[in-house]
Amino acid sequence: MAKKREALDDQLRERVLKALEGLEYGSIHIVVHDSQVVQIERTEKYRVPAEKAEGMRASK
């Protein structure tokens, strides 16, 4: 049974590392129920620089 637990721990570790791979902005959310990891969520955000169109200015 200890081998099963180690295999599960290794699998979870790999999944968390894979979720982190290439993530620049965002979060990893790990959901646990009854001391067991049941879900891993990855939220990724892309930052796009704001550009103003030429000739358009905010008037005050």
From TrEMBL:
Matches recorded under InterPro entries: DUF2292 (IPR018743)
Pfam families: DUF2292
Superkingdom of origin organism: Bacteria
Record protein name field: DUF2292 domain-containing protein
Source species of the chain: Brevibacillus centrosporus
